[in-house]
Design a protein that fits this description.
single chain, mainly alpha, 2 domains, 19 helices, 0% strand, globular, RgtA/B/C-like, transmembrane, LipidA_mod_glycosyltrf_83, transferase
Amino acid sequence: MLKNYLPDIRIILIALGLRILWAIAVPVIPVSDSNAYDTFALNLATGQGYGWESGDPTAYWPPGTSFVYALFYWLFGHNYLPIIVFNLLLTAVIIWVSMRLAETWFNRRIAIVTGIILALWPSQIQFTTVLASELLFTALVLVGLWLWLNEGLTLRSRALGVAVVLAAASYVRPTALLIPILLLFERAVRTREIFKNLTATLVMFVVMALLIAPWSIRNTQVFGQFTTISTNSGANLWMGNNPESTGGYMPLPPEAKGMNEAQRDDYLKSAAVAHIKEKPFLFIRRSLVRLVQTHARESIGVSWNEKGLVKRYGTGVLLPLKIINQLYWLAALGLGLIGIVLLGKQQGWVMMISHPTVLFWGYFAAVHAVIVAQDRYHFPSIPMIAILAALTILSLLKVRQKRQKISETS
């Protein structure tokens, strides 16, 4: 049995080797959101609560990533090495599960190529030294999807297992809250068992709600009104939908100052919705722009390592790394888009729309087309893009081999 998976193990070992070399070469210096996760985790580990400082609780960032880092700080002190090791473990999970999914949906060869694509992906290597939610969230979503597709378990068992995993993912990023609907749609199209699937989805939502409830109760007590996981949904929606929006991050408006986080979130959400209703065609145009912005580049791995890179190697290393990232990303993106077309031709367009590679990529793309764009927001889609890219590569190789045979016989 182990012999069958030797190629997979080799791919993962190569991936880990590249990431270990990166971790040796680049020091961890938290910036932007990484600094927030670092600060919150340190405060949690030292008993000061979840916030920038003791007595000032926050829920602006979802707490899941900081909870994990806080455990490491509590056990090992304020040391980034355990986080690097954790990121390596997440890498192994992401590649392994992505390969298993590719093999389930297609074949063994596509699984191998998927693993190679992910192992060599520059930004994924660079995130080894970044304190961020991307790797953790991606791993949890993939594990949840793998559990859902595991026909060796009963549907009820799968629903319970997926609910636990997706609740954990929701603590990392609340976009996971709606994933049960994607799973319902995928299985309903595949099996036509509407009632069973609805029941399983209801179980998932109930279990997720129970697991998220403690944090919601904490937030409601802190801010004086019901708040689920985080208080940044209104801010993100407003950043993408206000008269001065460029589609990306922007400072919050002065009029929101003085409100607590929940009040500010409600205010910004209302302002954004009002703007969308007032200019619906502008919203549609901006959504298309944000869709492009999210997929136009992939430089965040360099940007969030910039201080460490400059400290060791100077500014001259930044542009070459960004060029490498961009070339790899555009190649993978192009191959992935072709893969969608090939999937439609092979399995039919209805099955293509409900295929998890397309469904999950489309979901994460749509979410950020509505709210705010940034290149890191396509990270949860990377395993799906890699699988579709692998499908394209092997399809092209198959066509080439057929042409060679024809030319040899003619």
